From TrEMBL:
This is Phytoene dehydrogenase. GO terms for biological process: carotenoid biosynthetic process. The keyword Oxidoreductase applies. Belongs to the carotenoid/retinoid oxidoreductase family. Pfam families: Amino_oxidase. Keywords: Carotenoid biosynthesis, FAD, Flavoprotein, Oxidoreductase. Pathway: Carotenoid biosynthesis.
Length: 498
């Protein structure tokens, strides 16, 4: 029986582990933290449950098919609840625009801002549908191991204008400045700069329309628990609190995984769900890495995503008399300038935009009765910035809560009864991401598909990667699809039937 060791229990690692176990491998999954889930591990404080990271579930079939592989039914393990509207986006004055999957509803919203953009939105949907068909349906689970794989799709990428940025692409169809922001924020959800990320990422809007936006009953952690349970039913072993310190390599093959407690797990193949740059830099000896996975590439030549500052807080009252819905984007007066400052990582900007998550509107189980659970997330520069987070974290937290109290949540600070805060150090120290990034390698055209770190190592034949830092990229659909890519690669190597 093939011994497969999976490093990391994010959605990519769990999905890969389930796929390999369903194929008959003896799977051992190791996770540094005491809880499974990686970025998706829940945060529990004083009777409140907060989603640690991902909150938006799209393309639910990517979960359902894992259970089908094992002869089970997803609905026997977890429940997804629809979210409508998908998002409500606020401008700096508190005026808002919201959208869902219904064209007429969105058209009525657009009419409030600029009626002339309704026809532009219709044309944008047609254009993004073509991008979605190529970029997600056809390519999201296709391996890009050889430059010829990229050359085959290059004509299509040119035809779809992938050389444009998301913002440039949307601006062809939408004229109102605020509506342009509303239809270009999506790359930020996967660590991308809308003014740099390829227009291929405009497909995210269409992906949401195709399958809807969902929330897991019991929080995103309920999906983690469901996958852990499934893996264990398939005979997989899950070892929590086990930090990996080294991947042993002999020749061009990984032979074992060394743990911090001194244990050694012999392996026939290794699938790494850890941050790809950090894995190469810290787990694999330099003599086993070519220039493509060298210190030079990951320390000097790679552009990284931003990091995140998140305040999780619970209140002793409900806030249903405010304009906030389940998913809220609150934009600063500055858009391009703020995003530029965040990605340049020269310092912490004085202003901020926020994603505010209020899951108890959809699922009250995340808080005690009569209470509300929130998290407020601000994109911030990664640790390449000189920001002293030991000093700045309390001040930044106060700025965010003061703003929310003044503009959206009256009396907020006097009603907070549970709280937890994370800053870029959490991503570096607990989630092991290089520079404390929130989403690993930045999704640009020249860091996508073949140009992105590969799902199979170029240097070690039986080492594979899943998760945000490899193809196709960050976001729940992306990391789940990366597990499908790895399964396809291994199936071809082993001669398995599809």
């Amino acid at each position: 029986m093939t011994r497969t060791v999976v490093i990391g229990s994010g959605f990519g690692g769990l999905a890969a582990a389930v796929r390999m176990a369903a194929r008959g491998d003896a799977v051992t999954l190791v996770e540094k933290q005491p809880k499974a889930g990686g970025r998706a591990a829940p945060v529990e404080v004083d009777g409140f449950r907060f989603d640690g990271g991902p909150t938006v579930i799209t393309a639910p079939f990517l979960f359902e098919e894992l259970f089908e592989l094992a002869g089970r039914r997803f609905e026997d393990y977890a429940t997804l609840l629809p979210v409508d509207p998908f998002y409500r986006i606020f401008d700096a004055r508190g005026r808002w625009f919201e959208y869902n999957g219904n064209f007429d509803d969105v058209a009525r919203q657009i009419e409030r801002w600029n009626p002339a953009d309704i026809e532009g939105y219709r044309r944008f949907l047609e254009a993004s549908r073509a991008i979605f068909q190529k970029g997600f349906v056809e390519l999201a689970d296709a391996p890009f191991l050889h430059v010829t794989d990229m050359l085959k799709v290059a004509p299509d990428l040119l035809r779809l204008q992938s050389y444009r940025s998301v913002y440039g692409f949307v601006s062809k169809y939408i004229q109102d400045p605020f509506l342009r922001r509303c239809f270009t924020f999506h790359p930020l959800l996967i660590g991308g700069n809308p003014f740099v990320a390829s227009s291929i990422y405009a497909m995210i809007h269409h992906l949401e329309r195709e399958w809807g936006v969902w929330y897991a009953k019991g929080g995103t952690g309920a999906l983690v628990d469901a996958l852990v349970r499934l893996l264990q039913e398939l005979g997989g072993e899950v070892r929590l609190g086990c930090e990996v310190t080294r991947i042993r390599v002999r020749g061009r093959r990984a032979t074992a995984v060394e743990l911090a407690d001194g244990d050694v797990l012999e392996a026939d193949r290794v699938i790494c769900n850890g941050d790809v740059p950090q894995a190469y830099l810290s787990l694999i000896d330099p003599e086993h890495r070519s220039w493509r996975n060298s210190d030079l590439r990951y320390r000097k030549l790679t552009a990284y995503s931003m990091s995140l500052f998140v305040v999780y807080f619970g209140t002793d009252r409900l806030y249903r008399d405010t304009p906030l819905v389940h998913h809220n984007i609150i934009l600063s007066e500055r858009y391009k300038g703020l995003i530029r400052d965040i990605f340049r990582a020269k310092g912490l900007p004085r202003d901020f935009s926020l994603y505010v998550h209020v899951p108890t509107i959809t699922d009250p189980s995340g808080a005690p009765p009569g209470h509300e659970a929130f998290y407020a997330l601000s994109p911030v520069p990664h640790l390449g910035s000189p920001t002293d987070w030991e000093r700045m974290a309390p001040k930044y937290r106060e700025l965010i809560l003061e703003f929310l109290e003044r503009e959206y949540l009256p009396g907020l600070r006097s009603h907070i009864v549970a709280e937890h805060t994370v800053d870029p150090r959490h991503f570096r120290d607990n989630l092991n991401t290089y520079l404390g990034t929130g989403f690993s390698v930045q999704p640009t055209l020249w860091q996508s598909a073949w140009f992105r770190p590969h799902n199979r190592s170029e240097d070690i034949d039986n080492l594979y990667f899943v998760g945000a830092g490899t193809h196709p990229g960050a976001g729940v659909p992306g990391v789940m699809s990366s597990a499908k890519v790895v399964e396809r690669i291994i199936a071809e190597e082993e001669g398995w039937q599809a």
